[in-house]
Amino acid sequence: MDAISPKIEPEKNRETLTSNAGQNRPSREEAEKAVHTLLRWIGDDPEREGLLDTPARVVKAYEELYSGYSKSAEEMLGRTFDEVAGYDDIVLVKSIPFHTHCEHHMVPVTGHAHVAYLPNGTVLGLSKIARVVDLFARRLQTQESLTAQIAAAIQDNLDPKGVAVMIEAEHMCMSMRGIEKQGSTTMTTTFTGAFKNDPDEQVRFMTMIRMSA
Ligand SMILES: [Zn+2]
């Protein structure tokens, strides 16, 4: 299968990660024990009433927060795309809210993604763009990787003339710990195809994002 379906780099990473994780995947009980240990390590008593169910709840929450490991962009985007009659200009989905977790501290990162592409005869269902953002957000991330993975997934599966992704996010690991800078926003961009090669297309993308905010 792999030989006939070329995969994008992040997908390869994902498959390496999940297949390795699959082999030695700890049981739910082991995962709950690990949370129990962390509760003791922070100085609390996992046996007190309020914390009795916490390990089970945390593991259950992790299943949802990190559900992106069990899916691929290829499956999510599918193989069929809608034909467009003559529309060949920018499709932009602006301000898609997301939550992810930084891979360094496993602390939340919250922000908005702006995702655009220039169709090459076919378009994606608009909800799929938001779902691709969620797919990668529900893994441990750096903001740079998240931005690049969203762009690569759309470029590789839809094959448009170009993709532009901008992410604006606040990192709780900067707001709550370390240098404690609240309210600072980190911006990252990835451009492919026409957006990468033509500065005018980048300007149009930026202008559309800032228009009628
Ligand atoms: Zn962090």
CATH fold field value of the largest domain: GTP Cyclohydrolase I, domain 2
In terms of per-residue confidence, which ranges show pLDDT below 50 for 5 or more consecutive residues? 1-16
> Beta-strand level of the residues, as a percent range?
15-25%
Counting structural domains, the number is: 2
The main sheet comes to: 5 strands, mixed
What sequence of helices (H) and strands (E) makes up the elements?
Answer: HHHHEEEEHEHEHEHH
What fraction, in percent, of the residue positions are helical?
40-55%
Q: What is the helix tally?
A: 9
Strands of the biggest beta sheet: in what spatial order? 5-2-3-6-7
Distance between the termini: 44 Å
Dominant shape = elongated
CATH architectural group of the largest domain? 2-Layer Sandwich
Query: For this structure, what is the CATH class of the largest domain?
Result: Alpha Beta
> Roughly how many Å is the radius of gyration?
20 Å
How many strands in all? Answer: 7
Structural class: alpha+beta
Mean pLDDT: 88
